[in-house]
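Collaborator request, handled under Task 6.
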Amino acid sequence: MTRSPLLEMAAVDKAFGATVALSGAHLRVEAGEVRALIGENGAGKSTLMRILSGVEKADSGTIRISGQPFSPANPQQARDGGIAMVHQELAVVEDLTVEENLLLGAEPSVFGVYLPARMRDRVISSLSLLGRNDIQPSTAVARLSVADRQLVEIARALVHDAPVIVFDEPTSSLGAQDIEHLFEVIDRLRKDGRAVVYISHFLEEVQSVADTWTVLRDGEVVGEGNISDTTTEELVSQMIGRRLEEMYPRIARDKGKELIEVEGLNTRSGVKDAQLTLHGGEVLGIAGLVGSGRSELLRGIYGLDSIASGSVRFEGKTHRPDPNRSIRAGIGFASEDRKKEGLATDLSVATNLTLGASSGRHFFSILGLKKERKDVEVQIKQFGIRTRGPEQPIRSLSGGNQQKVALARLVHLDVDAVLLDEPTRGIDVGSKTEVYRWIGELAAAGKGVLVVSSSMQELLGICDRIQVMHRGKLGASRAVDQWDEHSLMVRAVGGEGAA
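Structure tokens returned to the collaborator:
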């Protein structure tokens, strides 16, 4: 006799106006199963999960939990019905404590009196399960790093013992140790009989943590199977609908003049005596673990973090880092935290693409406005941004498409040096290749690209030189062919020859 799955979604349709987001989509997850839900940005993954979590209502289709019909009218009903979501885009409230965030919307009370002590043991055990006893329940979330806020998001799903847990890109801000703890937690959830849906663009993660897979493409399920029976190449082919011949396209380029020279840079955020030179026509990578100071280095050069001492020169001239001065000089920056720093989420795609640029037009210039509109449409097409049009609010785009907008803005700014902090965070496999090609084209056009990435493989695939950060100190530069993943990791953890 076939048992009922813990979660079953069948024949789910959803359209937004003329745009079909889902067409006959289905998903089935047994108790004790981890199912990977994968696909390119805009494939329909987020829409399907938003329907499951009560944020959106399906046009048609059914949902069953443990064989019983389930139709949540809102997120509270979904949570009460046993659905827990771990969102990629952080949904924590910075002004509240860790404990208050974990219990938000389900605060224990008697006659309207808040009684947090009734749930404190569960709050502490959820953090402990993630290997983070050092995060205190009374700590304000605003004081935590992006990685630690991500862990709070994960702990919130664990604290309510939901039978169905959805992880949407849960590792995008986590370091290697936290990812290892998370995978241990997911294994415990599997053994505990939960149904886990795991969404990720990191296929190596999917192959490590999941039992089965389902691929969505253009709103339809195009394939599913067992992870153990499927190769990486087959998964990629299912996702993008074609063979992926080359993940890291190499475009011929010539190393040019020095653009950015950093000497003895110390920042108040922890960078110590950094030395760096970025040339036009090259891609320079910065490797290191989360918290090593990689992001702080870029932020110091650009002017977002205060410099305590040292110097930055651009094209041979002294540069006093400040975002406005940096843009005017020809330095562009894309933050890893696109939601907080990279985008104006209440504004349109077109407005975000043109933020910070004069566009070469005068006020009330009709010709200038037309040119700007044409440039925006070209960039939407060039970056493959899935949108209903330039005026669509950017908050309604998927996370990966929002990231593409943040990167496309740098093209509109037409800067000479580009600082990229985790440029492919939240972007699907096919789109990553497009971003790598774009980076190569920038370098081929004589621009300098400085890239921070948590993926050693990514840095080895796209860079000409790599430097490694460890506890705020930047190691010496080496040509990419002098590195491999092992040597990069040894340096990153402070081993042999680390700075």
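The cover message to the collaborator said: "Residues 359-367 have pLDDT under 50 and may be disordered. The longest strand covers residues 19-29. Please let us know whether this matches your experimental observations."
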